[in-house]
Structures are given as structure tokens and as C-alpha cells.
């Protein structure tokens, strides 16, 4: 296992930045251990997979979790607004960092994550393979 510490800054797209980091570092399998930061633009897919929540106001990142690799990213995010009201869902492109986002990513070098279309769900779903040393 290997730990990566990443700091994103104003204007970075959260999902795209994580994707590019995985590509640049050839990360085959990882998970988000910790995330703290804020957004000024939000785009998330809500439960049910049909509706989206898009907003241009300030949010604190309360949590970000899921699986990441060069073969695909599946992340869920929870946010709170200036009143403390919460919203959450599936992270999409278009979530833009306000002042900062600090991420700790745990690379799982004993696995490879890929994604394959699942007819039952209608989505590309996680396929986990063990790396043999």
C-alpha cells in the first residue's frame, strides 16, 4: 500500500483532478481516505440516477468516498452549505474547488480495479482483480 497526499486549489475540477492524478501516477486501485475542502460550483447525480443537483454557491466537503483507478472513478460526496443544510450524491465533473481541497488517497497495490457494463444495473460496475506477486 502507498499513501498519496494531494492538494487541489481554486478552479480545479475535483473529479477530473483525481482522474488525472491516477493517470499520472499509474494508480490501478485506490480509495479516498480523507477529504477536506470547499467548492463554489456543484454538480452531483442524486439517488435514483436520473436527477442532478447543480448549484453555484459555497459548500464545505463533509465526505468523499469511493474507488479510483486509471480505469474509472466511482465517488460519492456529501456537502454542507452556509446554513449547514446537507446535499449528497454521485460526484460528477463540474464540482469546482473554492479555496482548497486536501485529499489522502490510499493506493492498493495488491489489486487492479476495472469497470465493466452490468446489464442488471445499467452502469459500468467495479471488477476487482488480485495482483499476483
State the main characteristics.
single chain; 133 residues; mainly beta; two-stranded antiparallel ribbon; 1 helix; 9 strands; 62% strand; globular
Task: Explain how this protein is built.
- It is a single chain.
- This protein is mostly beta strands.
- It contains 1 helix and 9 strands.
- The protein has one helix spanning 14-24, and strands at 2-9, 30-45, 52-55, 59-69, 72-80, 86-91, 96-107, 111-118, 123-130.
- β2 and β3 (52-55) form a beta hairpin.
- The longest helix is centred in the N-terminal third of the chain and has 11 residues, at 14-24.
Write the layout of secondary structure elements.
Blueprint: E1 2-9, H1 14-24, E2 30-45, E3 52-55, E4 59-69, E5 72-80, E6 86-91, E7 96-107, E8 111-118, E9 123-130
Antiparallel strand pairs: 1-7, 2-3, 2-4, 2-6, 2-7, 4-5, 5-6, 8-9
Amino acid at each position: 500500500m502507498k499513501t498519496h497526499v494531494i492538494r487541489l486549489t481554486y478552479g480545479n475540477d475535483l473529479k477530473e483532478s483525481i482522474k488525472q492524478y491516477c493517470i499520472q501516477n499509474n494508480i490501478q486501485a485506490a480509495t479516498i481516505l480523507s477529504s477536506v475542502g470547499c467548492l463554489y460550483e456543484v454538480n452531483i447525480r442524486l439517488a435514483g440516477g436520473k436527477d442532478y443537483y447543480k448549484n453555484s454557491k459555497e459548500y464545505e466537503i463533509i465526505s468523499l468516498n469511493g474507488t479510483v483507478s486509471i480505469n474509472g472513478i466511482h465517488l460519492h460526496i456529501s456537502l454542507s452549505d452556509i446554513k449547514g443544510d446537507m446535499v449528497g450524491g454521485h460526484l460528477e465533473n463540474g464540482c469546482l474547488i473554492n479555496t482548497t481541497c486536501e485529499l489522502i488517497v490510499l493506493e492498493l497495490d495488491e489489486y487492479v480495479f476495472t469497470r465493466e457494463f452490468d446489464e442488471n444495473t445499467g452502469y459500468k460496475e467495479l471488477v476487482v482483480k488480485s495482483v499476483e506477486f
